[in-house]
Write a structure and sequence with these properties.
5-stranded parallel beta sheet
Length: about 250
């Protein structure tokens, strides 16, 4: 899908009415600066870098240099505007968005977020900033169960560049009349897990798509997907959460 030049490259944040302020704190930025552009040799088990405690005083890094986005159909639908926003912000970026994508490694490629992250590291190379927009397709497979959701988050965070900062886009899945599964409750539980993990990990931030999209229910054309307007705003909203690219 090609980028539509008729859409302004920067949707005005004031129209959204929500300001996202992310404090970018992490221990791995300096370690990444020397080797971030090289292709990675990814082991079977990736290890997340050591995180500082919340009480540590660390000067914030200058911003995101290289950004990787791993997403599902929602990010795929936002793809043209997402890429335009990332380019306009000056990032060296890579977007890998696949409809029906879930998180676990046990899912075959290209439908596994873990496998996608490892593949990006082996080709595009390492990145100091990662955006993860996954979870919607995992709700019915245990994503609404606290222990299972934590395991999924663990697995995904272990697949990204060690020491990188991660922004996780939370989910919003409404009741689906075709099934008796409680997507609303599962959404609440999955988002709660991501919130709790972010509160305990200075390298993890949450992009609150749930609140924004709940305030704009007219965007939805099914229980989870949004229309063109929602996709454009989603692209702007998520990229605006990242710290600026270095000058």
């Amino acid at each position: 899908m090609a980028y539509d030049p008729g859409v302004p490259s920067r949707f005005r944040r004031r129209a959204v009415g929500i300001v996202v302020a992310c404090v970018f704190v992490g221990a791995g930025a300096s370690a990444l600066s020397n080797g971030i552009r090289g292709g990675a040799v990814v082991s079977d088990v990736a290890v997340r870098g050591e995180a500082f405690q919340a009480t540590d005083t660390v000067p914030p890094p200058p911003g995101c240099e290289r950004v990787v986005v791993i997403g599902d159909s929602l990010m795929d639908n936002s793809g043209p505007w997402l890429r335009a926003e990332l380019a306009a912000a000056g990032y060296d970026y890579h977007v890998d968005a696949q409809p029906s994508r879930r998180i676990p490694e046990r899912i075959r490629a290209p439908y596994s977020g873990v496998r996608a992250a490892r593949a990006v590291r082996a080709t595009f190379g390492e990145a100091d900033c990662w955006m993860v927009a996954l979870g919607s397709n995992d709700l019915v497979y245990g994503g609404g169960v606290v222990t299972d959701a934590n395991g999924m988050v663990d697995e995904m965070l272990a697949a990204v560049t060690p020491g990188a900062s991660v922004w996780w886009v939370n989910v919003n899945y409404h009741r689906d009349p075709r099934t008796g599964f409680d997507f609303v409750r599962a959404t609440e539980m999955f988002n709660r897990v991501v919130d709790e993990r972010a509160a305990a990990d200075p390298n993890l931030q949450v992009i609150d798509w749930y609140t924004l999209s709940e305030a704009n229910l007219d965007w939805f054309f099914d229980p989870v997907h949004v229309d063109r307007t929602g996709s454009i705003v989603r692209a702007e909203f998520t990229v605006s959460a990242l710290p600026p690219a270095p000058n």
